[in-house]
Amino acid sequence: MNNILQKYAKYNQWANQRMVQMFQNLTDEQVHQEIISSYPSIHKTLLHVWDAETIWLLRLRGQSLLMWPSDQFDGPTEELYESLLHRSQELADFISEKEDAYFEEDCTYKTTKGEPFVEQRGFMVHHCLNHSSYHRGQLITMLRQLEQTDLLATDFIYYVRNFKES
User: CA-to-CA distance for 13 and 5, rounded, in angstroms?
Assistant: First the structure.
């Protein structure tokens, strides 16, 4: 299982980098523009992805946050991009250090509401990475609503076909 999760974590990092690359062509006004989606702007969607990757990584490390990291974030958009990419790198590095047995073990954590849960670590990782993919799809749709046409492929199979590891 660790081979698949490691590959998926590296893909997640790569896809987030490509998304940020596309956003850097936008004005700050466009990044904050209200668009109908799960979260009402590109900025708020990115904050949510960053929050989720942060919270799941900390849970895997045995820590539980009772608040969203973005509740204390008031930095510029460029800092958000850097924070998201840094977190994706941290997550990929963390996963690459683990053996199969780690992903089969249960992990106890609390939600941001303080509710206790126990989940298999492999499912937690899979959920986190899948969650980011889900929101990247929304972000592509948001870019299209902003009439952006120079979009980069972020599909997993595109990554697998074009970035073979030695």
Answer: 12
Q: How far apart are CA 18 and CA 77, in angstroms?
A: 16
Q: Residue 165: what pLDDT?
A: 67
Looking up tokens 């299209």, which residue turns up?
A: 144
pLDDT band at residue 166 using 50, 70 and 90 as cut-offs: very low
Distances (CA, A) of 103 to 57, 69, 75, 100, 109: 13, 25, 34, 6, 15
Residue 90, token pair as written in the block: 């941290």
Amino acid letter at 99?
A: E
User: Does the pLDDT of residue 66 top 90, yes or no?
Assistant: no
Verdict on whether the full-model pTM lies above 0.70:
yes
156 and 22 in contact (C-beta within 8 Å)?
Answer: no
Sequence-separated (6 or more) residues with CB below 8 Å from residue 87? 50, 53, 54, 57
CATH class of 2-162: mainly alpha
Q: What is the CA radius of gyration of the chain?
A: 16
Distance CA 122, CA 2 (A): 8
The DSSP code sequence of 23-78 is: HTTS-HHHHHS--SSSSSSHHHHHHHHHHHHHHHHHHHTT---SS-GGGG----HH
